[in-house]
Protein backbone atom coordinates (compact mmCIF):
# COMPACT_ATOMS: atom_id res chain seq x y z
CA UNK A 1 0.00 0.00 0.00
CA UNK A 2 2.61 2.72 0.83
CA UNK A 3 4.22 2.32 -2.62
CA UNK A 4 0.94 2.91 -4.47
CA UNK A 5 -0.75 5.36 -2.08
CA UNK A 6 0.79 8.57 -3.52
CA UNK A 7 -0.35 7.56 -7.00
CA UNK A 8 -3.88 6.94 -5.70
CA UNK A 9 -3.89 10.31 -3.94
CA UNK A 10 -2.58 11.90 -7.12
CA UNK A 11 -5.61 10.49 -8.98
CA UNK A 12 -7.86 12.23 -6.49
CA UNK A 13 -8.85 9.20 -4.41
CA UNK A 14 -10.17 10.02 -0.96
CA UNK A 15 -11.44 8.08 2.01
CA UNK A 16 -9.84 5.78 4.56
CA UNK A 17 -6.63 3.90 3.73
CA UNK A 18 -5.17 1.20 5.98
CA UNK A 19 -1.36 1.22 5.87
CA UNK A 20 0.32 -2.02 6.92
CA UNK A 21 2.36 -1.53 10.09
CA UNK A 22 1.40 2.13 10.35
CA UNK A 23 -2.34 2.44 10.81
CA UNK A 24 -5.15 4.34 9.15
CA UNK A 25 -5.01 7.46 7.01
CA UNK A 26 -8.19 9.44 6.37
CA UNK A 27 -8.21 11.78 3.37
CA UNK A 28 -10.94 14.41 3.25
CA UNK A 29 -11.56 17.05 0.59
CA UNK A 30 -10.10 17.97 -2.76
CA UNK A 31 -6.62 19.48 -2.80
CA UNK A 32 -7.59 22.60 -4.75
CA UNK A 33 -5.70 24.82 -2.32
CA UNK A 34 -3.14 22.48 -0.84
CA UNK A 35 -2.74 19.40 1.33
CA UNK A 36 -2.34 19.32 5.11
CA UNK A 37 -0.93 16.29 6.96
CA UNK A 38 -2.79 16.66 10.24
CA UNK A 39 -1.97 15.05 13.60
CA UNK A 40 -4.24 14.92 16.65
CA UNK A 41 -3.69 16.06 20.24
CA UNK A 42 -2.71 13.98 23.25
CA UNK A 43 -6.13 13.11 24.61
CA UNK A 44 -8.37 12.58 21.58
CA UNK A 45 -7.92 11.04 18.15
CA UNK A 46 -9.17 11.98 14.71
CA UNK A 47 -12.72 10.91 15.58
CA UNK A 48 -13.15 13.74 18.10
CA UNK A 49 -15.80 16.31 17.23
CA UNK A 50 -13.12 19.03 17.19
CA UNK A 51 -10.95 17.31 14.58
CA UNK A 52 -13.93 16.27 12.45
CA UNK A 53 -15.40 19.78 12.41
CA UNK A 54 -12.04 21.31 11.53
CA UNK A 55 -11.38 18.82 8.73
CA UNK A 56 -14.89 19.33 7.34
CA UNK A 57 -14.50 23.12 7.38
CA UNK A 58 -11.16 22.85 5.59
CA UNK A 59 -12.61 20.49 2.97
CA UNK A 60 -15.33 23.06 2.24
CA UNK A 61 -12.55 25.52 1.39
CA UNK A 62 -10.60 23.16 -0.86
CA UNK A 63 -7.88 22.27 1.63
CA UNK A 64 -7.34 18.51 1.70
CA UNK A 65 -6.52 16.98 5.07
CA UNK A 66 -4.54 13.77 5.44
CA UNK A 67 -5.44 12.81 8.99
CA UNK A 68 -3.19 10.33 10.80
CA UNK A 69 -3.35 8.69 14.21
CA UNK A 70 -0.29 7.93 16.28
CA UNK A 71 0.26 4.29 17.28
CA UNK A 72 -0.52 4.87 20.96
CA UNK A 73 -3.95 6.29 20.08
CA UNK A 74 -4.67 3.25 17.92
CA UNK A 75 -3.80 1.03 20.90
CA UNK A 76 -6.19 3.02 23.09
CA UNK A 77 -8.91 2.37 20.53
CA UNK A 78 -8.10 -1.35 20.30
CA UNK A 79 -7.70 -1.99 24.05
CA UNK A 80 -10.42 0.33 25.31
CA UNK A 81 -8.26 1.89 28.02
CA UNK A 82 -6.39 5.15 28.19
CA UNK A 83 -2.62 5.39 28.05
CA UNK A 84 -0.24 8.35 27.93
CA UNK A 85 1.49 9.29 24.69
CA UNK A 86 5.15 8.29 24.25
CA UNK A 87 7.97 10.81 24.34
CA UNK A 88 7.68 13.52 21.72
CA UNK A 89 10.74 12.32 19.75
CA UNK A 90 8.95 9.06 18.95
CA UNK A 91 5.92 10.96 17.69
CA UNK A 92 8.17 13.10 15.49
CA UNK A 93 9.60 9.94 13.93
CA UNK A 94 6.11 8.53 13.36
CA UNK A 95 5.03 11.74 11.70
CA UNK A 96 8.15 11.68 9.49
CA UNK A 97 7.21 8.18 8.32
CA UNK A 98 3.71 9.35 7.46
CA UNK A 99 5.17 12.29 5.56
CA UNK A 100 7.29 9.90 3.49
CA UNK A 101 4.27 7.65 2.84
CA UNK A 102 2.07 10.41 1.39
CA UNK A 103 4.80 12.26 -0.53
CA UNK A 104 5.59 11.81 -4.22
CA UNK A 105 7.71 13.80 -6.70
CA UNK A 106 4.64 14.40 -8.86
CA UNK A 107 2.80 16.23 -6.06
CA UNK A 108 3.53 19.33 -4.04
CA UNK A 109 4.70 18.37 -0.54
CA UNK A 110 2.00 18.56 2.11
CA UNK A 111 2.01 21.17 4.82
CA UNK A 112 2.44 19.76 8.32
CA UNK A 113 0.12 20.52 11.18
CA UNK A 114 -1.70 19.32 14.21
CA UNK A 115 -3.72 20.02 17.31
CA UNK A 116 -1.71 20.79 20.46
CA UNK A 117 0.77 17.89 20.90
CA UNK A 118 0.33 16.95 17.24
CA UNK A 119 1.29 20.47 16.27
CA UNK A 120 4.30 20.35 18.55
CA UNK A 121 5.46 17.14 16.85
CA UNK A 122 4.91 18.76 13.44
CA UNK A 123 6.95 21.81 14.44
CA UNK A 124 9.83 19.65 15.67
CA UNK A 125 9.78 17.69 12.41
CA UNK A 126 9.76 20.91 10.37
CA UNK A 127 12.69 22.25 12.39
CA UNK A 128 14.61 19.00 11.83
CA UNK A 129 13.77 18.14 8.22
CA UNK A 130 12.09 21.23 6.79
CA UNK A 131 8.50 21.58 5.57
CA UNK A 132 6.41 23.39 2.99
CA UNK A 133 4.58 25.10 5.83
CA UNK A 134 3.16 24.61 9.32
CA UNK A 135 -0.37 24.92 10.74
CA UNK A 136 -0.41 24.80 14.55
CA UNK A 137 -3.84 24.60 16.20
CA UNK A 138 -3.73 25.37 19.91
CA UNK A 139 0.05 25.11 20.16
CA UNK A 140 1.23 24.09 23.67
CA UNK A 141 3.68 26.95 24.22
CA UNK A 142 4.09 25.79 27.83
CA UNK A 143 2.40 23.44 30.31
CA UNK A 144 -0.59 25.05 32.05
CA UNK A 145 0.54 27.08 35.05
CA UNK A 146 4.20 26.86 34.04
CA UNK A 147 4.65 29.78 31.67
CA UNK A 148 8.40 29.81 32.30
CA UNK A 149 8.80 26.34 30.71
CA UNK A 150 8.35 27.37 27.08
CA UNK A 151 8.52 24.91 24.18
CA UNK A 152 10.17 27.31 21.77
CA UNK A 153 13.83 26.20 21.71
CA UNK A 154 13.50 24.74 18.19
CA UNK A 155 11.51 27.61 16.72
CA UNK A 156 14.54 29.59 15.44
CA UNK A 157 15.11 26.62 13.08
CA UNK A 158 11.70 27.01 11.44
CA UNK A 159 12.32 28.43 7.97
CA UNK A 160 8.87 27.75 6.49
CA UNK A 161 5.65 29.78 6.72
CA UNK A 162 3.95 29.13 10.08
CA UNK A 163 0.38 29.86 11.15
CA UNK A 164 -0.58 29.49 14.81
CA UNK A 165 -4.32 29.48 15.52
CA UNK A 166 -4.75 30.10 19.23
CA UNK A 167 -7.58 30.89 21.61
CA UNK A 168 -6.97 34.09 23.53
CA UNK A 169 -7.66 32.25 26.83
CA UNK A 170 -5.58 29.13 26.07
CA UNK A 171 -3.91 27.95 29.32
CA UNK A 172 -1.06 26.56 27.20
CA UNK A 173 -0.33 30.09 25.97
CA UNK A 174 -2.77 32.98 25.64
CA UNK A 175 -2.60 36.23 23.74
CA UNK A 176 -0.89 38.27 26.47
CA UNK A 177 1.99 35.79 26.64
CA UNK A 178 2.35 35.07 22.93
CA UNK A 179 2.52 38.74 22.00
CA UNK A 180 5.70 38.95 24.10
CA UNK A 181 7.42 35.98 22.42
CA UNK A 182 10.13 36.55 19.83
CA UNK A 183 8.78 34.30 17.08
CA UNK A 184 10.37 33.69 13.65
CA UNK A 185 9.68 36.34 11.02
CA UNK A 186 7.57 33.99 8.86
CA UNK A 187 5.23 33.17 11.75
CA UNK A 188 1.72 34.58 11.93
CA UNK A 189 -0.64 34.14 14.89
CA UNK A 190 -4.40 34.23 14.41
CA UNK A 191 -6.17 34.68 17.74
CA UNK A 192 -9.66 33.27 18.30
CA UNK A 193 -11.40 35.69 20.63
CA UNK A 194 -12.33 34.17 24.02
CA UNK A 195 -11.38 30.65 22.90
CA UNK A 196 -9.58 28.25 25.23
CA UNK A 197 -7.40 25.26 24.29
CA UNK A 198 -10.18 23.54 22.32
CA UNK A 199 -11.40 26.93 21.05
CA UNK A 200 -14.49 26.88 23.27
CA UNK A 201 -15.60 30.42 24.18
CA UNK A 202 -17.66 31.46 27.18
CA UNK A 203 -21.40 31.84 26.59
CA UNK A 204 -21.18 35.52 27.47
CA UNK A 205 -18.95 36.05 24.43
CA UNK A 206 -21.83 35.36 22.06
CA UNK A 207 -19.61 33.00 20.05
CA UNK A 208 -19.64 29.21 19.77
CA UNK A 209 -16.91 26.62 19.34
CA UNK A 210 -18.31 25.83 15.89
CA UNK A 211 -18.01 29.47 14.80
CA UNK A 212 -14.42 29.67 16.05
CA UNK A 213 -13.51 26.44 14.23
CA UNK A 214 -15.00 27.91 11.06
CA UNK A 215 -13.02 31.13 11.59
CA UNK A 216 -9.88 29.05 12.10
CA UNK A 217 -10.48 27.12 8.88
CA UNK A 218 -10.82 30.40 7.01
CA UNK A 219 -7.53 31.66 8.44
CA UNK A 220 -5.78 28.39 7.52
CA UNK A 221 -7.15 28.54 3.98
CA UNK A 222 -5.99 32.15 3.55
CA UNK A 223 -2.52 31.40 4.90
CA UNK A 224 -2.01 28.33 2.75
CA UNK A 225 -3.23 30.01 -0.44
CA UNK A 226 -1.02 33.03 0.25
CA UNK A 227 2.02 30.73 0.29
CA UNK A 228 0.87 28.17 -2.29
From TrEMBL:
Give the Gene3D superfamilies listed for this entry.
alpha/beta hydrolase
InterPro entries documented for this protein: AB_hydrolase_fold, KANL3/Tex30_Abhydrolase, NSL3/Tex30
What is the scientific name of the source organism?
Litchfieldella anticariensis (strain DSM 16096 / CECT 5854 / CIP 108499 / LMG 22089 / FP35) (Halomonas anticariensis)
Q: What name does UniProt use for this protein?
A: KANL3/Tex30 alpha/beta hydrolase-like domain-containing protein
Query: Which stretches make up the KANL3/Tex30 alpha/beta hydrolase-like domain?
Result: 34-224
Q: Which Pfam families match?
A: Abhydrolase_11 (PF20408)
